[in-house]
Amino acid sequence: MSKQYKYKQAKITEEFIDVDDEIQNSTQQTGYAWEEEYKRSWDVLQEDEDGSLKRTVENLQHRKRKRLFRDTATIRRGIIRHMFLIVDLSEAMMEKDLRPSRLDLTLLYAEQFILEYFDQNPISQLGIIVTKGGYAEKLSDLTEILIIMGSLTTCDPGDIYDTIDNLVNENIRVSVVGLAAEVQICKLMCKKTKGTYGVVLNEAHFKDLLFEIIPPPPVSATQNKAELVIMGFPSSVTDASPSLCACHSKPTIGGFICARCHSKICDLPTDCPVCELTLVSSPHLARSYHHLFPINNFVEVPWNNSVSSTHCFSCQIPFPPLLGVRGGAVPIENSGRYKCNKCHQHFCIDCDVFVHEVIHNCPGCLATTH
Amino acid sequence: MPTAVTHFKTNIYECLEALPRYTLDQLYKEPATCLAIFRLLPSLARQFVMSLLFTQPINSPVNLTKSDLRLWVKNEEAALTKFDEALEKLSKLSIMTIDQYGYIQMNSEFRERFRDCLTGGGSHQSFGVPCKKPASDRPDIAFLDRHAMKQWEEILHFMVGTESMSQPSAAVLKVVTRAKLMKEGKDKLVITNKGFQFLLQDVNTQVWAFLIQYLDIADELLQMNVVEVLNFFFMLGSLELGMDYSVKGLTDTQKQLLDDLANFGLAYRRKKGSSRYYPTRLATTLTSGNSAVVSSAVSSSASTTTGEDGATEQGFIIVETNYKLYAYTESKLQISVLRLFCELQTRFANMVYALITRDSVRKALKHGITASQIISYLSSHAHPQMKKRIPLLPPTVVDQIRLWEIERNRLEATEGYLYKEFRNQGDYEMVLKYATNHGFVIWFNERKRMFSVTEEGHEHVRSYIKKKIAQRKTNGGGGSGVGTPNHQNNGSPSILEFLDIEDERKQRIGW
Amino acid sequence: MNVLRDAATVNEDDANLLVLIIDTNPLIWTRLAKSTGLSLKEALRHLMVFINAHLALKHDNEVAVIASHVDVSKFLYPIPNPHKLSEDTDQTMNSNMYQRFKVVNDQVIGNMKELFEDLSKLNSYPDKASSMIAGALSMSLCYINRIMRADEIGHIKPRIFIASVSPDSPNQYISIMNCIFSAQKLGIPIDVCKVHGEDAVFLQQAAHITGGRYLKLPTPQGFLQFLMITFLPDRYTRTYQCLPGEEKVDFGAACFCHKKIIDIGYVCSFFVIHWNNVQLAGLTNLMLASVNEGGLRVVNGIKKLDKSKGRESGGST
């Protein structure tokens, strides 16, 4: 009886646990952050019968993996993006409903967002605009807008509907992450411009919403003009003595030579300051691929099929041995083995996560011929 | 951790550096010794050795000058400093020297043996002779760890003066007295300040410090050959924990040595004169610095390595910003070490709760323990949970411990002479001005008409005053102005009423 | 992701984890042995000394060895259940060799022999020219990930060394690039020693992007010497060292068009993914297809225009 009860409790409480910056599955949320009591991470830890925390930890790991399931269907994505990140700096950002405050958290996530954005979109551009006291300054024309908005009102000089129509005409996609509550006009704007609109529930959900925008957006079939962009692949040079670069007019030794006008620039990717040719290097293009091929999700291997493997295929860590049910020991819920359906190799949970989040290669498929 | 490693390195390194070249050459005959000494070198020096090791046949010299070698490092100041340091250490250990033509020569003995070490050639048996078959009742690693800890802690307990089980062996007594870790007390040996410092070191450093002292004794008292002793130490460091080794192939000296080392807990023998011996973790980690904790991550993965960490090397201390200290330990020894600088509050079954206070730290400082030693003890024994934090220890606590140390040093004593009881301000100012101009004044107080001067200034000031008195005497003829120290003048304003031998007082001036 | 800490800062006290990937393509090694006199067996002896030297540098240095074979990539060391290599004989222990060296060397050589036992499969290899380098790289990254996760205080500094003989395999382009970017993100340098044959462009980029070293062996006989001088230094030592031949790699679009150098091209701003039937072989050409006489030829919606009309860049499909 008590065993069952304990187990149930573990199931319920684990939904609230906040371990590191583990991202929570938003659908499992039960309420808003301010409705919850102060969370103490040790409250949710449950000891099992042996006084060990192992199972709780394993359940957590397992949940982390669930998040990984991704759509691996055929889609078409744009790899050259021009995005504005608009950050609301109005007074509403001082609210502390997100910890430590809306603003602090936004800045923290924005920093991570930018790094991740350029990792996944290496030949794209990103601009940042801040809005405050009724002013916003645009720096250059880009084709996408992401707004992080804490305020519930907008401050529009003209007719907002005209503005939205202009956005639609210019093919500018607008996505909004709202920190307060849903705002009808934002919802409408995102819908019309084919962006996404989301209102955060808590800190982790905020990050989820923000990072959803990083992967290159799918392209609808009607938009299918397959626009071509002319690009140069400059060669790198190392001069014996420093010469001036075209971008900063500073003496440099190393650099790249524009393929069209032969002016010297410091770094890639960029637009040539002289002839405006887009200059990239081949690894930049290749990097665009990096996140574009999701590999098939691994499936969990049940205990009765797991006898064949003793260790993880890729990192050689030993798997938990098959435990007899006798002796009263409760077998660990899952076998700790995850299988690629293509190559049928077994992997540990860490490799599963690592392979899907970082490498994007299945070691089993690449290391064997089947 | 880094402090611990450097400690060990400098100690054994200094010991080797002091050896004459001939002895070093003898040492380099053993590949195990070559490997151990090689690992003591700085990174860059190790790389130089490796780069030149296989260049040419053994006998032909390396055709490189120092400036050729310098081309391998970046032309930056930091790199060049490292380069010079590397070459200096190499030449001090006579591994690589520069001959009179400016060419770099690698010690041919070292070169040959170190090559053997890497390629597995030769028949030197320098890495211990393993037994053909493991003994049926071979002790497991846990047993060896327990044995090592028991033996070693017995020595430490003896030093701390815990109600001890037994008197340690003669060799131990010799070492502790010689190393001045303990001295003759009223009826028994008592621990010295150096001994307290010793207790705060990590085990590896302690063992080395002990062995180096032992080496001294071995040379002088036991007539052992230094080369044989050192070779044996380094060989022990290259052995595999938990394996059986045979005493076959050991020299008589080394067999004798083995008995003593078994006493220290570095090796285990079933009984004296047994043909097998088992190195303990104290021995096998000898040449690896204090590594048991850090390498555990990898060692659990690689199939070959050593298993769990030795109990003492595992960190167990948590320090909070409010000066509270939690130590997860049951060991009496560790608790008594903590007591050196903490106020123990509560003791639980597996944990001790203590406070770091001004008094407790000052007590430690009085014993000659330095703030840095306390801090390095705390950081090297920090709990794994603490080690994840940057910085490891709370800065408030670290700073405060240092401040408490500085606090003791804030009084500085200067010998000097105090001048006082001037009759009037004019006289006072005149003499003070003279003394100030010559830079003799240490301290002065105008209101009280007092000042003090340095020792060397005293003579000058005194003769100046005497001169003045003499001047007044000749000028005024008694009635006015000039006073003598002896109050001979009848109450007239005299400048130097005070100047009497009795009034010259040596004063310690504090600030 | 925060488990994977920044690996950029190195200290003298750090331990080093070296993952060796040995390209064991038997066909090329046989040919190489004939033409240059450096057989796989001989090369392996050099590599063993190299491994020992790495282990000798520091007591807590670690090593892992992966064979990149023709049909499989496989761990040679460490493996979870090592065979007891001739337990009963005197060979298990040897007083003339440091035990750690011996364990590693015995296992690597023993497992290597096993790899070559079944030569009958040789004819069934799908791609005889190359080896499974992408698989080996993926495995080594997973292994490094595991070690780094376990090492909470960031004491272990990993790096990868590839001894390569096989030419680049276009099939593996995307997966190799994936590994390279992952390694770059995790701060793991990839060193490459091209023992034989043409420069491997993919691996050259691997070394360049990850901050590793690339060397094409001028004389196979001096293999060991090059290993010791160029590839042995750990990451700490390298911050003070400069080596001859650290040149810049040309990042022309050579790799995309199979060594056809393009200066200017057209790139589609959208990218098409056919996940279910990706033609990996065609992928390198997907991005930049060739254009003749100034006209555009569309290949999967992506085109490339040659810089000057007259210059023929030729389709490489």
From TrEMBL, chain A:
Chain positions of all zinc fingers (C4-type): 258-275
This entry carries the following GO cellular component terms, namely:
transcription factor TFIIH core complex; transcription factor TFIIH holo complex
Keywords for the protein's UniProt record, in alphabetical order: Metal-binding, Zinc
Recorded superkingdom:
Eukaryota
Q: Which GO terms describe its biological process?
A: DNA-templated transcription; nucleotide-excision repair; regulation of transcription by RNA polymerase II
One MF term from GO for this chain?
zinc ion binding
Q: Looking at the keywords, is S-adenosyl-L-methionine present? A: no
Record-annotated C2H2-type domain positions: 340-360
Q: Which SUPFAM superfamilies match?
A: Cysteine-rich domain, vWA-like
Q: Which InterPro entries match?
A: C1-like_sf, Ssl1-like, TFIIH_C1-like_dom, TFIIH_SSL1/p44, vWFA_dom_sf, Znf_C2H2_type, Znf_RING/FYVE/PHD
Protein name as catalogued = 13276_t:CDS:1
TrEMBL record, chain B:
Keywords carried by this UniProt record: DNA damage, DNA repair, Nucleus, Transcription, Transcription regulation
Q: Which GO terms describe its biological process?
A: nucleotide-excision repair; transcription by RNA polymerase II
Q: Which locations, inside or outside the cell, does it occupy?
A: Nucleus
The domain of life is Eukaryota
> What species is this protein from?
Funneliformis caledonium
User: Which residues lie within the region annotated Disordered?
Assistant: 469-497
Q: Which NCBIfam families match?
A: tfb2 (TIGR00625)
GO MF entries: ATPase activator activity; double-stranded DNA binding
Q: What is this protein called?
A: RNA polymerase II transcription factor B subunit 2
Family in the record: Belongs to the TFB2 family.
What job does the chain carry out? Component of the general transcription and DNA repair factor IIH (TFIIH) core complex which is involved in general and transcription-coupled nucleotide excision repair (NER) of damaged DNA. Component of the general transcription and DNA repair factor IIH (TFIIH) core complex, which is involved in general and transcription-coupled nucleotide excision repair (NER) of damaged DNA and, when complexed to TFIIK, in RNA transcription by RNA polymerase II. In NER, TFIIH acts by opening DNA around the lesion to allow the excision of the damaged oligonucleotide and its replacement by a new DNA fragment. In transcription, TFIIH has an essential role in transcription initiation.
In this protein, which residues make up the domain named Transcription factor Tfb2 C-terminal? 399-466
GO CC annotations on file:
transcription factor TFIIH core complex; transcription factor TFIIH holo complex
TrEMBL record, chain C:
Annotated GO biological process: nucleotide-excision repair; regulation of DNA-templated transcription
Family annotation (Gene3D superfamilies)? von Willebrand factor, type A domain
| Pfam name, any one | Tfb4
Name where it mostly resides: nucleus
* A GO CC term attached to the entry: transcription factor TFIIH holo complex
**Superkingdom of source:** Eukaryota
Drop me one GO molecular function for this one.
zinc ion binding
Instruction: Alphabetically list the UniProt keywords.
Output: DNA damage, DNA repair, Metal-binding, Nucleus, Transcription, Transcription regulation, Zinc, Zinc-finger
Compartment(s) of residence: Nucleus
Indicate the family of this protein: Belongs to the TFB4 family.
Q: Outline the subunit composition.
A: Component of the 7-subunit TFIIH core complex composed of XPB/SSL2, XPD/RAD3, SSL1, TFB1, TFB2, TFB4 and TFB5, which is active in NER. The core complex associates with the 3-subunit CTD-kinase module TFIIK composed of CCL1, KIN28 and TFB3 to form the 10-subunit holoenzyme (holo-TFIIH) active in transcription.
Known role: Component of the general transcription and DNA repair factor IIH (TFIIH) core complex, which is involved in general and transcription-coupled nucleotide excision repair (NER) of damaged DNA and, when complexed to TFIIK, in RNA transcription by RNA polymerase II. In NER, TFIIH acts by opening DNA around the lesion to allow the excision of the damaged oligonucleotide and its replacement by a new DNA fragment. In transcription, TFIIH has an essential role in transcription initiation.
* Name recorded for this polypeptide: General transcription and DNA repair factor IIH subunit TFB4
